[in-house]
Amino acid sequence: MKHIFRSILSIPLFAILMYGCSGSGQDAIIQEGVSTVLPASKNEVTIITLQRQAFNHELVSNGKVSAKAVAALRFESAEVIAHIWVKNGDRVRKGQKLAELDKFRLQNKVSQTKDAVERADLDLQDVLIGQGYNLDDLNKVPEDIMQLAKVKSGSEQNKAQYQLAQYELQRATLIAPFDGVVANLFAKPANVASLSEPFCTIIDTRGMEVDFTVLESELPLIKNGDKVQVSPFSDMSTTYMGSICEINPLVDEKGMVSVKARVDGTNNLFSGMNVRISVYRSLENQLIVPKSAVVLRSGKQVVFTLKDGKAYWNYIHAGLE
Question: Does the predicted model carry a pTM greater than 0.85?
Fold first, then answer.
């Protein structure tokens, strides 16, 4: 009986010893794993001295190219187009002939109205003679009498028709008003010129402008004269330089402000082209820190400073980025 009791007491003791040995081995394994994961070297940081300096700010927006000077040319008479000397894309010089109408009817109209003016002048003289005035000294004719005589003779009306006929004859030949490129020319010779639509458009590509918008909050960051860089969406590798020339002092219902920039060297830019605009401005006397030095703590921006060999965090509010 004593032998059995001793055997029963030895079972839990053996189990306790086995458990103790197993726990020690597991702790050793865990300890070994931790020692291999954690780095043995210290974390090193880089510090800089905070100084006030110039901050080069960049504002990016999208816009459209527009020509500074655009002229829609049209004929004044519905006559047959006799000649067209240019086509779309041609560069023209100021005063160069572009197209011409058949002038037979227009020249005939000028001759008829000229004869009507001469007859009206004779009728005017007859009226004045009938009133007893000397034709050699018309300055003595009272103004009201002279005006009545002109109305009776139809002198002023015929002169107006004669001037209109001369104007239409002159406008029968379209001339480039300035140096530029021909666009929107769709008419063909031997067809009647349209009076409701322009014959063609002349675009001055030497003075291209870019229209874009900025947020109301960004308005203080730009001013006239700021440098801009323009890149067409069709070729983002090509850039053109320019400067802001106009800021519209009006905020629309979407909180946007219209801005216009004049672009230099724009022979390869087309009116209506979509572009990306970068506005550059240098802000003096700014405290500038690297973006990597700003960290977030509870949703707030923090910058660490070094004092007496210790790092202290400082809550900040970053302005431009």
Answer: no
